[in-house]
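Board notes (copied after class):
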Amino acid sequence: MSSPAFLQIHPADNVAVALRAADAGVVHASVTTREPIPAGHKLALHDIAAGESVVKYGHPLGVASVDIAAGSHVHSHNLRSALTDRLDDLRFADVARSGAGDVPAGGRVADTFDGYRREDGRAATRNEIWIVNTVGCVNVASEKIAAAAHVELAGTGIDGVYAFPHPFGCSQLGDDLRYTQKVLAGLARHPNTAAVLVLGLGCENNQMNSFLQFLGPQEQARIRWFNAQEVSDEIESGVEAVRELAGYARRFKREPIPASELILGMKCGGSDGFSGITANPLVGRIADRHCAAGGTTLLTEVPEMFGAERVLLERAVDETAFAGVVDLVNDFRAYFRKHNEPVDENPSPGNKAGGITTLAEKSLGCVQKGGSAPVAQVLPYGAPAAPGLGGLALVQGPGNDGVSGTAMTVAGAHLVLFTTGRGNPMGFPVPTLKIASNTDLAERKPAWIDFNAGAIADGTATFGQLSDELWQLVLDVASGRRLARNEFRGQREIAIWKDGVTL
């Protein structure tokens, strides 16, 4: 028996998703397609009147802009967004579900990974030395220092030496400068960096002394710093500083650590119509498993929560978390209004080509990366998450892949699970596991993709099978037994949020 051509995700849905391209005349659940339906796109399961809600995932995606006949292709030509620019007044007592603070079943408390235990007690998945530059003027110098030291220290107990170039640190004021400092300080504090070299120029707005004060006290042996203007040769001085740091970093050895101490960031980018039915819910099962064992899982991409806020609000553990979600979403809507931009100027052209029509549709698929785990905390941009949260921490940040992935790294993510339907080679400073929503992508871009969730849509594997396999991959990568594709290809990038003037 051949696998079905369409999938109705929720009983309340009035559309189904094409699991493969379908010609006109294909019959599904007594409905006959009136026209070709591309893979990942939507089929009307019955007549939908103009102004009526189009429902997928059991929630409205928007409203029909014209009358839609059963069997029709539902997309931008006949479906429009119905998002407003502010959440209605909502109360915790009216929205939160009974038992919303309970962690889902299925955690494996006994799971461990082979990681590094830092002197402050935190766990790490890599024993690296990172070069954090206070200003973009020394990007090239930081990269040259990292490249030379990486080769010199290979095989000596150091997992690598890496620099993360960026264009900021000077000609910035106010929140922009503070955002830069928050990101750079978060990188410098990250447990995966056993030791850090802070490289400055000397005349930038982000002055070395003020940045070090912002960074806070550090173990003296794990940090070095200098300004390039104050030494004869910044490359030689930098490599020598890294040599000194390596002596400290080599003290750390891998040892068994409870997997519940991992902080996992959940990310999507280049989404398609399959993302919300394969890769994202698969990652959501990992979130449930991890949170049930007491772990911390991160979600960000706040504009891609628009239209799906209630899904998260229903799982708030208390009134503080509930109010935090409402403020997080409303503040981001205000951010759009401040710049005179519509709140629903999303999905991207690639998302639409893949079958996603409205931002609410994208959001309802996006938040599935959090599974059914409780929403326990809301974090401002640049703030660290606590391990052992036993739930989700929502991190303030935009949908942009680079900025949101960096925000989760700065919040302390040891690994990022990055789902994609269209494909994206980007990686972050930490291992970034790319999870394909469809088999075609996994087969076309094997150098990008770490794991194929498309087998679910193909009917060749179940969620249960793949969640076990993906969890084992997480433990293997955390233990250093395997490298993520971004590590193997040297794709480690950061992006910093900017919202102000440049001097």
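Comment from the instructor: The chain has a mean pLDDT of 93. The first helix runs from residue 92 to 95.
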